[in-house]
Amino acid sequence: MTTEDNLPVDLSSSFKAYDVRGIVGETITTESVRAVGAAFVDVLELNGQSVLVGGDMRPSSAGFSQAFAEGAAGRGANVRLLGLVSTDELYFASGALKAAGVVFTASHNPSEYNGMKMTRAGAVPVSSETGMTEIRDLAQQYLSSGIPAAEATGTIGSEDVLKAYAEYLRSLVDLSGSRPLKIVVDAGNGMAGMTTPAVLGNAILPGLPFDIVPLYFELDGTFPNHPANPLEPANLLDLQAAVVKHGADIGLAFDGDADRCFVIDELGAPVSPSAVTALVARREIARAKLGGEAEPTVIHNLITSRAVPELIKHDGGRAVRTRVGHSFIKATMAEEGAVFGGEHSAHYYFRDFFNADTGMLAAMHVLAALGEQDGPLSELGREYEPYVSSGEINSQLADVPAAVARVREAYTRDDVVVDELDGITFTAKDGTWWFNLRASNTEPFLRLNAEAVDAVTMADIRDDVLALVRR
Predict the structure, then answer these.
(1) What φ, ψ does residue 28 adopt, rounded to 5°?
(2) What does the DSSP 8-state code read for residue 452?
(3) How many C-beta atoms surround the C-beta of residue 133 within 10 A?
(4) CA geometry: angle at 176 spanning 380 and 96, to 5°?
(5) Cα separation of the two ends of the chain
């Protein structure tokens, strides 16, 4: 399939820094996917080796999986088609089977999109710095001149990893002794509609002491109910209402490919990803210490609440602060031997999960923490949210650098510490507030995150910075 002027698709429009994402039939096509499959094998030197290929519930994922498999096998790889998988299922398979792989998904993007997340063997991510650029360029060449035949064509078979994935997750968090919990799960018509019954229900394994109330479990890549993006508050409204209506103990919301999880308490209020990060960090530090680690390392990005590093240190762990973005977190996890990592965007990374992110495993830790004590989640969550946060506020600007310069001039003073690990962060020396400004890599947006010891201080800082930014 080619564009209207009969030229091959320009892959530079769909290849991003960490994944591939484009509009089906326009910037990502069956022909381009087949070429990427061939280039994936050649660049990563996978001739004669296994390659895992799976996809989410989007209408185009099955066809794209087959095309990628044909391109990869044509260059000598032995492909195992996994069928329908969540992104973290692909990471599990890549880690457990020690094979490179790809999952077709566009995560929370609208239905007209699809894309690819690629890994080397062991769930090591492929990014623009670790082979993706070379894959793009070689695939573009194959689109123009054709894919050469390998000396020996590889095979294409199939494998189902859902049961092994569920068993593995259950081996990491024992939920069998939990008190009975009523859980509302909003799958958003995404892959959690398949993985939740497998891991938390009794679809494959023996049942747990949970009463699961399903919302939008039907796999439907057209997203008929709401976008599968729980980061947007509007997409949590159905879950919040259902938790209250059913008198549930907790609500869980997953994005389309189920690698992120958001948590709602019994009152229908969101539990921040920072609070989830702190809660899971406490559990993973304790477990690592039981295993003999003196000072377990936990990674957090610079947008997470100040409560996260404070709790890590309080519990005898070592907190390492990183830039925003899964490639930085995963690289730092490996470099530091970290037991866990968390981001403000609800991505949670585990050493025992091949340093990869999995929303389901994070949800299981929250369920375990809730189920081993008698109090409600709202009380448990307050323990991990001592500060007041603004959330992420975007400003669309004609001149982002000029806006940052105005803020820098106003806040460069003796009682403020400034650092530029990612964007620019200003922190009051007395510890009462901090805020970060980060420019979007792809849009004319400046993102503000602020936090303070109380609501009045947070609002004062937020409003003052926004006035400077939007002047």
Answers:
(1) -140, 120
(2) E
(3) 15
(4) 100
(5) 48
Rg (CA), the chain: 23
Alpha-carbon span 199 to 193, nearest angstrom: 11
DSSP helix/strand/coil, 154: coil
Nearest to 119 by CA among 85, 150, 159: 85
Rounded mean pLDDT, 253-272:
97
From the list 267, 292, 278, the residue with the least C-alpha distance to 379 is 267
Question: Which value, to the nearest 10 degrees, does the dihedral of the CA atoms of residues 366, 367, 371, 376 take?
Answer: 70
Tokens of 265: 């308490």
pTM, two decimal places: 0.94
Tokens, residue 331: 């690289």
CA distance 183 to 196: 11
What are the pLDDT digits (tens) for 345-396? 899 999 999 999 999 999 999 999 999 999 999 999 999 999 999 999 999 9
Which member of 107, 127, 272, 390 is catalytic?
107
Q: Which residue has the tokens 């399903």?
A: 214
Can you tell me the distance from the alpha carbon of 187 to that of 190, in angstroms, rounded to the nearest whole number? 5
What's the CATH number of domain 273-382, 3.40.120.10, 3.40.630.10, 3.40.50.150, 3.30.1020.10?
Answer: 3.40.120.10
Instruction: Specify the residue for token string 């899971």.
Output: 280
Residue 115 pLDDT > 50, yes or no? yes
CATH class of the domain at 164-174+181-267: alpha beta
Collapsed DSSP state (helix, strand, coil) of residue 229: coil
Report which residue type is found at 238: D
Q: What is the distance between the alpha carbons of residues 409 and 437, in angstroms, rounded to a whole number? A: 14
Domain 164-174+181-267 shares a fold with domain 388-469 = no
Tell me yes or no: is domain 11-160 CATH 3.30.365.10.
Answer: no
Q: Which CATH architecture has domain 388-469?
A: 2-Layer Sandwich (3.30)
d(CA 158, CA 143): 27
- How many beta carbons lie within 10 A of that of residue 43, not counting itself? 18
DSSP 85-105: --HHHHHHHHHHTT-EEEEE-
Paired sense of beta strands 340-342 and 297-301, if any = parallel
> What phi and psi values does residue 209 have, to the nearest 5 degrees?
-75, 50
Q: Is 186 exposed, middle or buried (0-12, 13-18, 19+ CB in 10 A)?
A: buried
Pairing of strands 100-104, 50-55: parallel
Q: Are 124 and 131 in contact (CB under 8 A)?
A: no
Angle between helices 359-371 and 162-172 in degrees, nearest 10: 40
Distance CA 251, CA 225 (A): 17
Known catalytic membership, residue 107: yes
| DSSP three-state, residue 189 | coil
